[in-house]
């Protein structure tokens, strides 16, 4: 029986993985600062949205303004795919087309009264209620701090 995979849309990476990420799996990307982990995660996120999937990108270390500023000139970035979630009916019929939802859970947000330990419960609820297909957390290191 062949393993079902999700193509990342990053050609060389898909080839390295034997066709893509195994469907339903968790993938941990690690490397030193500046090695391209966030860019790779963003590229994956936008590629999934282009395929009609819902992607939630949770930033725990960078403000969304900063991410948008550095990523917007890149070829994969598509402002038209970004949704805020404010006007979407997540419990109703699934809307056509994919999107990227960004969520800022940086240390500044935590310092304003939220608890770092709650992030897992909050993310799980958001993934369920918004029927998210792909969850990207950048980075787990910030959560551990």
Low-confidence stretches: 85-90
Distance between the terminal alpha carbons, to the nearest Å? 41 Å
Estimated share of beta-strand residues: 15-25%
Extended strand count: 6
Please state the CA-atom Rg, rounded to the nearest Å. Answer: 15 Å
Q: Which sequence of strands runs across the widest sheet?
A: 4-5-3-6
* Shape estimate: globular
What is the chain-wise order of helices and strands? Answer: EHEHEHEEHHEH
Quick check: average pLDDT?
79
The secondary structure category is: alpha/beta
Structure description:
- The protein is α/β, with parallel strands linked by helices and 145 residues long.
- 34% of the residues lie in helices and 16% in strands.
- It has six helices and six strands, in the order βαβαβαββααβα.
- The protein has helices at 11-16, 37-50, 64-71, 107-111, 119-129, 140-144; strands spanning 5-6, 21-22, 54-59, 82-83, 99-104, 134-138.
- The strands form two sheets. The chain has a four-stranded parallel beta sheet.
- The longest helix has 14 residues, at 37-50.
- The protein is globular.
Short description:
The chain has 145 residues and is of the alpha/beta class.
Search tags:
145 residues; single chain; four-stranded parallel sheet; two-stranded antiparallel sheet
